[in-house]
Design brief:
3-stranded antiparallel β-sheet; globular
Length: about 375
């Protein structure tokens, strides 16, 4: 090896060493949550899942604009219409801008059910930012502009088909995400607050307070969840407004959600309250609340994250199950569980299988939450490198 090659190689090696030293310094100076974020970014599946969930919530927030139709609009001429295929090549083999064919309504001679036959002579271009059903964006700004569609006087586009009374399934899935995805967040927020407060009081102070809280937890955990959910949901007055029913359903789902977290918090506080750093904080004059929140809770953040991320999919599945059974939310409220009520009839599923579209949506959402929870658990666990 020549001297010039060695000379050229040394600056690169020196630069790499300086970079490694700088990274080590940043590592030792970083706070706990910054370290958690760095470890979470290395979990590829969790990052992808987080991006998918971000898309889900983005669609739910902007469902008014992204939906091609009003979710309550009934297209009387397109009952149980199959999914529409967007094409770029016509029947003659010519390429053209995205379009859909019109359909001609008829009836099956054997079952007498409505059928829709493609009319290749009726071509309707698919456009962006078209005018359609009027709505109020976020309930504030009246408009009729939708992201895509075919326009008011053209053949409507049904990406996922329509249900038995002619409502667009895709639009209803977009709107249903607002309820099904938010009920989990609201429910988990209630469970988080109750679990931390009651578990913290039980584990830190002990004594009679601990006994009372633990007996309450034992009673709640011994009750069968599904029958109790069904009984409480069935007790809700049918004349309540949809908003009241929504929050009542959220509270029902939160009844059991806090017990597991409270036990985890209690157990960890019992093992940590005699540690030297807790004694040092007491001698330094720190308040009991500050000792719990600043010194003890961060020490078992991974356990809290596991409990929360495990409960969030359960909340979504709970709302979907109650609404599917008809004892949670009911029409005209739109949620994924309400949409699946039509799937209770096996005949509908046999002839109109596209009514099951909410099923894969729920499955994907629950899986994404579980994968994100795994990534957060590994990132928050100090023993995982």
């Amino acid at each position: 090896m020549s001297a010039s090659t060695v000379t050229k190689g040394r600056p690169g090696r020196k630069k790499r060493q300086e970079t490694e030293v700088q990274r080590e310094e940043e590592f030792y100076r970083a706070g706990q949550w910054q370290l958690v974020w760095w470890k979470f970014k290395r979990h590829r599946l969790a990052r992808v899942s987080l991006a998918v969930l971000a898309v889900f919530y983005f669609v739910a927030i902007f469902a008014d604009f992204l939906s091609p139709h009003d979710p309550l609009h009934r297209f009387q001429d397109h009952l149980a219409h199959p999914p529409t295929i967007i094409r770029i090549r016509d029947a003659q083999g010519n390429f053209r801008a995205p379009f859909i064919y019109g359909t001609v309504k008829g009836r099956d001679p054997e079952t007498f059910r409505p059928v829709h036959k493609i009319d290749t002579n009726s071509i309707h271009p698919v456009k962006l930012f078209v005018r359609g059903d009027p709505y109020k964006f976020w309930g504030l700004f009246p408009t009729d502009v939708h992201l895509f569609g075919t326009g008011k006087d053209a053949m409507p586009i049904f990406i996922l088909g329509t249900d038995s009374i002619g409502r667009d399934v895709l639009s209803r899935i977009f709107y249903g995400g607002r309820i099904s995805l938010s009920v989990g967040l609201v429910g988990i927020a209630i469970s988080f607050i109750l679990g931390l407060i009651l578990g913290g009081i039980s584990g830190f102070f002990g004594g009679v307070v601990d006994e009372v809280i633990q007996r309450v937890i034992e009673v709640l955990t011994t009750l069968p969840q599904i029958p109790l959910w069904m009984a409480l949901a069935a007790a809700l007055p049918r004349d309540w407004p949809r908003v009241q029913v929504y929050f009542a359903t959220t509270l029902i789902l939160s009844i059991f959600g806090w017990t597991g977290l409270a036990r985890i918090v209690r157990g960890r506080l019992l093992s940590m309250r005699e540690e030297d750093f807790v004694l040092a904080a007491r001698l330094d004059g720190e308040s009991e609340w500050r000792i719990i929140t600043r010194y003890m809770l961060p020490g078992f953040a991974s356990y809290i994250i596991v409990s929360l991320t495990g409960s969030l999919p359960g909340m979504i599945l709970g709302e979907t199950s109650l609404s599917f059974l008809g004892i949670g939310l009911n029409p005209p409220t739109i949620s994924w569980g309400v949409m699946l009520q039509e799937a209770q009839d096996i005949v509908n599923v046999a002839y109109f299988p596209w009514v099951l579209w909410p099923v894969p949506v729920v499955v994907v959402a629950v899986l994404m939450f579980n994968f994100v929870g795994d990534g957060l658990r590994d990132a928050a666990d100090p023993y995982v490198t």
